[in-house]
Amino acid sequence: MNKNKDRNSVKTPDYILEFLKNKYFKQTKVFDPCPLIFDWDPKIHTDGLKIKWGDGIQPVFVNPPYNISYKFMKKAYEEFISYGTKIILLVKVSSICTHTFRRIAKPFHILFLDDRVQFDNFKRRAPFQSCFLMLGFKKGSTFEIISLKN
User: Fold this and answer.
1) Is the Cβ–Cβ distance between 66 and 93 less than 8 Å?
2) Degrees, nearest 5: CA angle 150-31-82
3) Which residues in the chain belong to E strands, given as ranges?
4) Which DSSP helix (H) or strand (E) runs through 17?
5) List of residues 6+ apart from 82 with CB closer than 8 A
6) How far is CA 63 from CA 11, 49, 139, 140, 150, in A?
7) What is the radius of gyration, based on Cα positions, of the chain?
8) Could you tell me if 34 and 65 are in contact, meaning their C-beta atoms sit under 8 angstroms apart?
9) Which of 47, 52, 128, 136 is geometrically suited to a Cys-Cys bond with 86, CB 3.0 to 4.6 A?
10) Cα separation of 61 and 88, whole Å?
């Protein structure tokens, strides 16, 4: 069981970060505009939705709070269109069925995970399917189903 009250923000599992590092980020340092901070305070911490995410060179990875993932999808789209920043978001599959996503879906490449994610500090896998939304890695709106199992 997760000891934290907020289930909208959870740590990205190491096996997912390792997969992304080996497959997409290689030796490049990755920027996270939304690092996991359980006691996030807008007076102290930076709001990832209000800052520029990159310079078009450094890739970005975001595991946004699920209750506002649509805001991060929109911001990712804006950053990609404006600066050409390569971005990967980890989101629930249900979040790409929204009106907000359909309006901006064209440049996204979607990687559907073939198994539910095992988040740290939870006894069971997530009760929902997840996917990676990718910008700048492949052209056009395409999708794949991938396995993270070895």
Assistant:
1) no
2) 115
3) 60-62, 87-92, 109-113, 130-135, 142-146
4) helix 14-20
5) none
6) 8, 13, 22, 22, 22
7) 15
8) yes
9) 136
10) 5
Phi, psi of 67 (to 5 degrees): -75, -15
Cα three-residue angle 120-15-18, rounded to 5 degrees: 135
Output the six-digit token pair for 63: 């595991």
- Strand duo 87-92 + 60-62: pairing: parallel
Q: Could you give the CA distance from residue 79 to residue 73 in angstroms, rounded to a whole number?
A: 10
Instruction: Specify the pLDDT at position 8.
Output: 64
64 in Cβ contact with 39 (< 8 Å)? no
Please name the helix (run of DSSP H) or strand (run of DSSP E) that holds residue 18, with its range, or none. Answer: helix 14-20
- How far apart, in whole angstroms, are the C-alpha atoms of residue 3 and residue 73? 28
Across the chain, which has 150 residues, the per-10-residue mean pLDDT values are 53 88 84 81 86 84 89 91 91 80 80 85 82 85 78
Q: Would you state the pLDDT for residue 150?
A: 46
Outline where 47-116 has alpha helix (H).
Answer: 69-83, 99-104
Q: Are strands 87-92 and 109-113 parallel, antiparallel or unpaired?
A: unpaired
Predicted confidence at residue 72, as pLDDT, reads 92
